[in-house]
Amino acid sequence: MQKILFCWELGEDYGYLGKALALARAFADEPAEFYVASKDLSATCHLDWPTNVKFIQAPIWLRSNPQALKASSFAEILLYKGYDSYPHLKLLTDAWLAIFNSISPDVILFDYSPTALLAAAGLRTPKIIVSNPYLTPAPGTSAINLIPSAYFDAAKATEIHQWVIKVINSVRQDYGVAPITTIGDLFIADATFLSGFSATDYFNTYRSNPVYCGSALGVSIGNQAPVWRPGLSQKLLAYLKHRDSRSGAILKILAAMQARALCFYSDCKPEDIEQFSNTSIEVSNTPLDFAKAYDEAATIICHGGQGVVNEALYRGIPLILAPTQAEQYFIAEKIKAMGNGIVIGKNDSYQEIEKKLFDFFSNSAIYEKARFLAEKKFNIDPHLVRQQICNSIHSFLNN
């Protein structure tokens, strides 16, 4: 029986497992075993997996570093994830090799898994990147600033880049593979598929012939049927995190407006749900069936994660974004500039958020612009792209 291994090593939230689930379902009726080496095994229990899927804990670097949240280049991100020294990195790559040797996969898929890619560099097993473009630097790129709005110390970034490359090449030498010269060279694979669109790819000017997948790599993360309460607006769909203070403010303002909103309020407590029990807002801490919800939603409110944003762009649904990290800020500013969404800033007051929401809902042009861009700029058929990815996997399985 043929074996496919999906690797997820860095990052948070359901988007990574959503890609794994979409691909696992595509191979559910075939004589193949689908393995998922997951950074977070606890998150897998919320999803409805095919019976041919098996799970493994991915090797990850657990030592925390407060500087990691301020990393301004990809090499600096890796520096805090075990790439600070040869012994640390070798432990991680050897752990990945143990997984590869145990499973003996016929194809390996990688989503934000640079260490797994490094460990597989000496293997003849076909390697396919199926990931987020922001987390997949283009081959040949080095110390590029990932946070344009913040001060970038180019000299420091270059020094970190050189050190991390030195550590990486020490490991590559052990595995008998040629050294690399840039951090982007870690992401050389037999095929690369990137979620989203060229317009939202931070590295689009550095890539040659990329395959953008639009919303094809997303999948519904829950089974709870979407049910909106009666209200005075079109249906609004929200995916917000409780730990962000703006989330509660947004929901309270929507309730005061009697907006007809349905929200997956991640990690919220029962009392957070109870406060909206007598309002037009339906709040849940259980993942929703987003695939069905997208069909009915007129507006989407979220932090700017790729999965939700890609669906909104493809479907022509305008966005209200409250970004929490660098990639989300980049995407949010792109969408704001295109005219099919607004951004709620991290330091916006309650009154500022309230005004932005009122202005948004009274602006019909933003809905027209979202539909126009969906037709002209974001018209990538997810079914055709998903088939293209499956065909690529099959071509390697059949060789």
Could you state the order of secondary-structure elements as H and E? EHEEHHEHEHEEEHEHEHEHEHEHHH
Secondary structure category: alpha/beta
Instruction: Give the radius of gyration.
Output: 21 Å
Distance between the termini: 14 Å
Strand-helix topology:
Layout: E1 2-8, H1 15-26, E2 32-38, E3 53-57, H2 74-79, H3 86-103, E4 107-111, H4 114-119, E5 127-131, H5 154-174, E6 191-194, E7 211-212, E8 235-241, H6 245-256, E9 260-266, H7 270-274, E10 281-284, H8 290-296, E11 299-302, H9 306-315, E12 319-321, H10 326-338, E13 341-343, H11 350-361, H12 364-376, H13 382-397
Parallel strand pairs: 1-2, 1-4, 2-3, 4-5, 5-6, 6-7, 8-9, 8-11, 9-10, 11-12, 12-13
